[in-house]
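Form 7-S
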Amino acid sequence: MKFMSSPIWMYVVVINCMTIIHAHAQQPAYQLWYTKPAVKWTDALPIGNGRIGAMIYAGVEKDHIQFNEETLWTGGPRDYNHKGAAAALGEIRKLLFEGKQEAAEKLAAEKFMGTQSGAGDRDKWTAEMKALKGMQGNPALENYDDSSWKTIKVPSYEGWETVGLSGFDGAVWLRTTFDAPESWQGKDLVLDLNRIRDQDFSYVNGTLIGNTDGTNPRKYTIPAKLIKKGTNTIAIQVLNYFDKGGIAGYKDTSRAIAVYPEGTQPEAGFSLVKEWKYKMQNDEPPVVSQFQASYQPFGDLYLNFKNQTAPVTNYKRKLDLSTAIASTSYTLNGVNYLREYFSSQPNQAVVIRLTADKKGSISLDALLASPHKYSAVKKLNESTISLTLSVRGGVLKGQSQLKAVVTKGKLSVSQGKLSITNADDVTLYLTAGTNFINDKNVAGNPATDCIKAITSLQNKTYAQVKTAHIKEYQKYYNPFSISFGKSENESLPTDERIEKFAGSADAPFAALYVQYGRYLLISSSRPGTQPANLQGIWNDLLTPPWGSKYTTNINLEMNYWPTGPLNLGAMNEPLFKKIEGLAKNGAVTAKVHYNANGWVLHHNTDLWNGTAPINASNHGIWVSGAGWLSQHLWEHYQFTQDRVFLRTEAYPLMKQAAVFFVDFLVKDPKTGWLISTPSNSPENGGLVAGPTMDHQIIRTLFKNCIAASELLGLDAEFRKTLQEKLTLIAPNQIGKYGQLQEWLEDKDDTTNVHRHVSHLWGVHPGNDITWDTPDMMKAARQSLIYRGDAGTGWSLAWKINFWSRFKDGDHAMKMVKMLISPAEKGGGAYVNLFDAHPPFQIDGNFGGAAGISEMLLQSHTQFVELLPALPADIPEGEVKGICARGGFELNFKWSKGVLTALEISSKTGGVCLLRYGNKITSIATQKGEIYKLNGDLERL
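Output:
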């Protein structure tokens, strides 16, 4: 296309921390918008209703809507625990106390890690592929006829999935040729392919010259006797078991795969970076065993429009954050076209509306497809087609239905597609469901959710469906608003604003980023759904990065940091329901692995609520997941003051997490302190005894349980036990470099710039270290200085929060600018403002939004502190509906960096101790009352 310039939760009553001041805050018109369609998935715009998510590409001739349903995962219910693991616990601890880390990790890998899912017979399959099962003739031979084969780009470092073989695992033959000059005669050559995923059998002129299985570089010698002057044939059989496949070559794409004379450099030979011939031999590799399951894409909706080959003007695609509606508009042949897309929670469907300002102008074919091998599309009735699928090697099945409602024109269904001709307008309803019921039950009917959704839409107009969608969404979005003044860049498309943000005065873009984070959380974590995973609910890959699951040593928790301050308490419900499921499974893991009471969670979980340690013993044995998640339960109480929630939901889960640590903590033979072992300072430094982060989390959990039991008048004896243990836990320590020690021993490496800064948990999100202990706070800051500013997307987001707690607003803003920078430079933002690890992880979006709120308001100490870390780059602003612990909601303004006006509403009454700079004032608030103050904290 040529473009021319131009269910109701029990405490739903407190879902928002307070709405007394204003039913709906006045909202700036925040939009993401662009002047060209999406090319890549991370260009597309996300919509979601908490359960069904979709990515909108917005092409003119061909529109693509990739969609997900939150319960479609690999795997199935099973026991993740390693029977008899606790028998090895004592020896692992002993080895760590003796300083024998390598031996401890080896023993833990053998005896302590969780179990993996069952695997297929790889040896049998490999033998069949070597025997050329499924092929006609022998493709290794020089004169094999490959004229009918297709071509593919080689190499592809991110996998052949990115260059045409989407979702493919299995066996593929690749062939190409090179012309050897006469000067190469009598010389051995080097075939330099570097990395191939996973196994290769490489042939030159019909002779095998190399076979490697694994990640080792492929640099094979071609004997001189095999080379002939002129054309020579390279044939490679690639066996890909799982995830990315193909000839990967070099990550540094400036380095070419090549063939060249031995003793010379690649530049002396011929580059093999080009199109190769390929033939798929087999797409049924044996199932690969996994520690945990992976989130899956569901399907793709393609809209192929007819008669749209003329030049297009006035193209614009956008996402309106205030309505959760994406749209595409353009002019073609004098006709103005508009498409609207949203994911309706009331009607549980993705809704797509196609209109034009000239009657009879809409003609298209609508097709459903899926990356899953086992999928099929069929006609259901005269206006509906369905997509059915099953996950390879798993127990889950899915169904999606696509229904069209057409005004005038013609609608027909044939060959698995909806064909629409000359319609005035078209509304498409896309539904999806699976057989998942819970982590132990997959006996559901995938069609049920589809039928319910379609039934709910009967006799409803598009206007009614749209109005219901906006009303439901805005009850979450509207109670909070934020404005950082005006900027010239507000007239620019979003991709251009990202490019210019770091070097321009565009504070309003940071405010938009906050609201985008809120939008994403509302869209991926509604009450009654699963919690937001590593990618929210958006994923287009069968083997997504890190399984797109729930990483609990920072990432899942970061997803929910905005809920308290940014007035999104209702979005916590899926997380809290998840914690309930994890606590049940985690109680089994606590017994099997530690012979302990209570419940434990290690560094990852999935749809099936796995709680056992996974992956490698040098980072998979981290015991503090339950403790950290318990912090979210307590924080929700802190923001809402909901004692019913505290009594019936939060405290029982918090208590059992604490029970585990009462049993788990052991006395360090050197210091006499109670310490956590075996464990890990997340993903840094291997298996250890006594990481600082663990002790901060455990100490905070014990304090919170003590406070909760006192509030509720429960468990006096248990409270006494916690109080006794609390004094014995290893304290935070300042090391020889003036740093906060990451471990029990003073062994920090000041040159280590690891992305995790786990020992600063006590600064944020905890309050184990505050400015009430300035020396420790300064040591923590020194540790962060040593770690450096650079990092992955979520790491940058965490550092915004750290620098805000250190009350260095300008440094925090520096991190914001790094976070909202083009992803091509590393951690930052993609075109659609998705956070770039890279690759995409949504936690940085949420952590960044929370971090900006920390600049404006902090309440983790005795004070509700206003503008504690306001950067010079945000001199003007106004925020409404921001929340503080204690059950307070605030509106305030500032100008020229100075607070000018403040309103406070109190949810339950009580003392509000306000601080602004050196000014402190106390207000004995009454429930439901509003208090107005000036910038000097004087009552008006």
